[in-house]
Design a protein that fits this description.
This protein is an alpha/beta fold. The protein has 11 helices and 7 strands. It has a 7-stranded parallel sheet, covered by helices on one side. The longest helix has 17 residues, at about 240-255. InterPro entries: LRR_dom_sf. It comes from Glossina morsitans morsitans. This is F-box domain-containing protein.
């Protein structure tokens, strides 16, 4: 990774959107950009350099004080090692994170979700945890949550007062918990997107779940059909460039929206 020249960034006096790789981010750089009129700051994590010092609570606290309304989007992309230590190495209590994207990292970090719902509950607006169905179709997401005895997405819906978007692909969800999320967030939840639901309930009870969710969200809702989603999310293996296309499109939307 190249070294970022802080003084050059400071000369971009009208810069409103900045996207950086996490390995280039330092406390000095974070302090330097505080004079810019940033509205959106995107941090991409691909891997973790063992020599990276990390960003302290103090540095994020100072950053937050200067940017009260900034969108801070953290995206983990094929970050197979970083996702397991997300709450230890990257997330901080004073980090004003508004959006988390976990893209094809092959791991659901329950501890990180729980940590965020407690420590970032005032800022978090959106969470997307996305994997391919063909890699995870045999893993019921509830099996992972038995350690804590609760679904972290339900707890996040309860604690995070500004949460308005939840997108989960590649993991099987319990319909009761989707109803729970809908009850807690109601019409403040602008987007609830899932594609894999536990099929144990009968068709009649599933229809009842969907009808209640529709009412609670105040919009027509149903799980996505995996036969109609982007190939990167489906049951069949795809080439890397197909998955890359999905990631690039999502990141471009985050930058431009």
């Amino acid at each position: 990774m190249f070294s970022m020249e802080n003084t050059l960034l400071q000369k971009c006096s009208t810069l409103q959107v900045l996207s950086l790789d996490y390995d280039t981010l330092t406390e000095e750089l974070l302090h330097a950009i505080e004079i810019l009129p940033l509205k959106k700051f995107l941090i991409s994590v691909h891997g973790l350099d063992r020599h990276h010092r990390g960003i302290s609570e103090r540095a994020w606290s100072e950053f937050s004080a200067n940017f009260n309304n900034i969108e801070l989007i953290v995206s983990l992309i094929y970050a197979f090692e970083a996702v397991e230590v997300l709450q230890v190495r990257i997330l901080r209590q004073n980090m004003p994170i508004t959006h988390l994207r976990v893209l094809f990292c092959d791991y659901m970090n329950v501890e990180a979700l729980e940590w965020m719902s407690i420590n970032n509950n005032n800022t978090l607006k959106s969470i997307q945890w996305i994997d391919s169905a063909y890699k995870h179709s045999d893993k019921n997401i509830m099996d992972l949550f038995l350690r804590s005895g609760q679904d972290p997405f339900v707890m996040m819906s309860w604690r995070c007062k500004n949460l308005e978007e939840i997108v989960i692909h590649g993991y099987v969800l319990d319909p009761h918990n989707i109803v729970g999320i809908s009850r807690l967030r109601g019409r403040t939840l602008k987007r609830l997107e899932v594609s894999m639901i536990d099929s144990t309930p009968t068709e009649a009870s599933m229809d009842s779940f969907i009808e209640e969710i529709n009412t609670l969200l105040g919009q027509k809702w149903e799980p996505l059909n995996l036969n109609n989603v982007h190939p990167a999310l489906g049951y069949l293996p795809v080439p890397d460039d197909v998955r890359d296309e999905y990631v690039f499109d999502l990141m471009r939307r985050d930058i431009s929206n």
